[in-house]
Amino acid sequence: MTEEHRIQNEIRCAVSPYCTVFRVNVGEGRTADGRYFTTGVPKGFSDLFGVRHKDGRAVFIEVKTNSGRVRPEQKKFITKMRECGALAGICRSAEDAVNLLMEE
């Protein structure tokens, strides 16, 4: 398990009293006959997404290690989601994620 996956699992446990979150699996590859494909979410889509229990507000959490770099597409996605009224941010710990969910 990578450090980012460990943090992601800690976040999922810590936020469960406050929201329902789902992990987004992304990737790319080739089919058996050689065709290229990518999964269905746009570049920059956050690692975790869901809904805050108290008000149904959308939640987007980009998980990073302490040294993890945020890609421009991720910054753009988070900015756009916040402009739309969602709770969205970069979280490097479970504490960061819980603090994000406490925003009004």
Can you characterise this structure?
- By secondary structure, this protein is of the alpha+beta class.
- It has 3 helices and 6 strands, in the order αβββββαβα.
- The protein has one domain: Trna Endonuclease, Chain: A, domain 1.
- It is 32% helix and 26% strand.
- Helix 2 links the parallel strand 5 and strand 6.
- Helix 1 packs parallel to helix 3.
- This is VRR-NUC domain-containing protein.
- Its cofactor is Mg(2+).
- One of its GO terms (molecular function) is hydrolase activity, acting on ester bonds.
- It comes from Ruminococcus bicirculans (ex Wegman et al. 2014).
H/E element order: HEEEEEHEH
Strand order of the largest sheet: 1-4-5-6
Strand content: 25-35%
In the CATH hierarchy, the architecture is 3-Layer(aba) Sandwich
The helix tally amounts to 3
* Record field, number of beta strands: 6
CATH class: Alpha Beta
Q: Output the structural class.
A: alpha+beta
Number of folding domains? 1
Stated plainly, the CATH topology is called: Trna Endonuclease, Chain: A, domain 1
The chain-level mean pLDDT equals 95
Distance separating the two termini: 34 Å
Overall geometric form? globular
Largest sheet composition: 4 strands, mixed
Domain VRR-NUC: 2-95
GO molecular function: hydrolase activity, acting on ester bonds; nuclease activity; nucleic acid binding
Pfam family, one: VRR_NUC
Cofactor: Mg(2+)
Give the tags:
6 strands, globular, two-stranded antiparallel sheet, VRR_NUC, Trna Endonuclease, Chain: A, domain 1
